[in-house]
Amino acid sequence: MGWDGAPAGRRVVVVGGGIAGLAAAYVLRRDAPPGTAVVLLEGASALGGKLRVSTVAGVPVDEGAEMLLARVPEGIGLARAVGLAGEIVHPASTAASVLVRGVARPLPGGTVLGVPADLAALRAAGVLSPAGLAAVEAEPGRPPEPLDGDVGVGEYVGRRLGREVVQRLVDPLLGGVYAGRADLLSLRATIPALAQRLELTDGPAGGGSLLAAAGAVAAEAAGAGGQVFATLRPGLGVLPEAVARAAAAEVRLGLPVRRVERTAAGFRVVAGPVPSPTVLPADAVVVAVPAVKAAPMLAAAAPAAAAELAAIEYASVAIVTLAYPASVARLPAGSGLLVPAGEGWAIKALTYSSTKWPHLAGRDVVVLRASLGRHGEEQVLHRDDADLVALVTGELAAFAGLDAAPVEARVTRWGGALPQYAVGHIERVRRIQAEVARVPGLAVCGAAYDGVGVPACIRSGVAAAARVVAHLAGTSVPTT
Known about the structure:
The longest helix has 20 residues, at 454-473. This protein folds into 3 domains: 11-49 and 235-312 and 422-473, FAD/NAD(P)-binding domain, CATH 3.50.50; 108-224, protoporphyrinogen ix oxidase, domain 3 (Orthogonal Bundle), CATH 1.10.3110.10; 314-419, Polyamine Oxidase, Chain A, domain 2 (Alpha-Beta Complex). It has helices at 19-31, 73-81, 119-125, 130-138, 153-161, 163-178, 187-190, 192-198, 210-224, 239-247, 291-297, 303-310, 353-356, 385-399, 425-437, 447-450, 454-473, and strands spanning 11-15, 37-42, 53-56, 59-62, 68-69, 88-89, 96-100, 103-106, 229-232, 250-253, 257-262, 267-271, 278-282, 284-287, 314-325, 336-338, 347-351, 365-372, 408-419, 442-444. By secondary structure, it is of the alpha/beta class. β16 and β17 (347-351) form a beta hairpin. The chain has a 7-stranded mixed beta sheet with strand order 8-7-16-17-18-15-19. A 5-stranded parallel beta sheet has the order 10-2-1-14-20. A 3-stranded antiparallel beta sheet has the order 5-9-6, covered by helices on one side.
């Protein structure tokens, strides 16, 4: 049933065609009352947000997010639900390395986003100096320090285990996930399982020992068993279109939303250019765009939430994908290499795509992806594409010994891609959700709230849709 033909009380607009908005549209189609019309508005010319795949030297390689956590059920579950079960694959290797004084050292096993959990593995890896290792070994005997309130990851870890752990392990790993700085990122928001352990006041896994808490978290994760990561054989970037097909929503591309306004009957969604706006009435609205875009949209409908959203900062990144002739270039073993900021290189991480993913191996070319850009240090991204490619290939030759000429290169820029979960982020999100909940029929979702990974964004979209479904059915869903 089209928009104009929907019965009264059954019109929902989803703003944003990333994976969170698409997941919301899918759940609305599945669970909303019969006859509900779902319209999805996307300002870009294509769906998918940060999920996109294209070929490099004939090989399909993701341009944005390339994998999802397999142990978090929402990602794998949605892929299966939309007909992609047969395309799910797992990495051939998850053994990464970290660059320490120009030498690639194995990333210690059993870390929790870089926080050591296994002293034997830490010693064997050789990533810390003798003094740095001694600081970690001494931590369990130091006075306990249970977590009280929120704190920066780098501040807390540095205080307990020494700055070397922050600089060589925690910061590179968090930089890969958030493109942020460990000192500025919230411990409670970025490593919640560890924060919960640190809140304990007794027992072997609590009492303020960071090493003991990390060991407990790592043991729990290992006990879960099964594969940790997964992707899709054609590229994770095919997931959005599959979800869109299953959602069967009316999709309008190239139509950026400017305002969401409340009316006596529900909402007015104002989109398009100011001189000739497109105005859509709606009984419910799901806003699934980055916080920086959601803030002005919601300024009228939920001003307090909009003010909080405007305070969330973002980092920009670029992904340079390179294909080298397999006959003259060989990638190192393992899944990739992390490059700490203190090493002095522009590249912050490498993914050895052709060795990491079995479906990309055995081709005429080998493919890798280089990631650049950190929060507050985006100057390198001001270079044009040719300069970025030259910079990356030069650094690869210098510290990785990969001095062959690539046969093809692709530069993908993600401006304002990654929300920064600053200290106090969880409380900020609670305030946002509480204010949004005061507006019947309104919901928000996406990477800005409860996780930046693909499954977390899907879970956020599902929760937003559930609130709207409950509103349409005349019931309520508790605010989380």
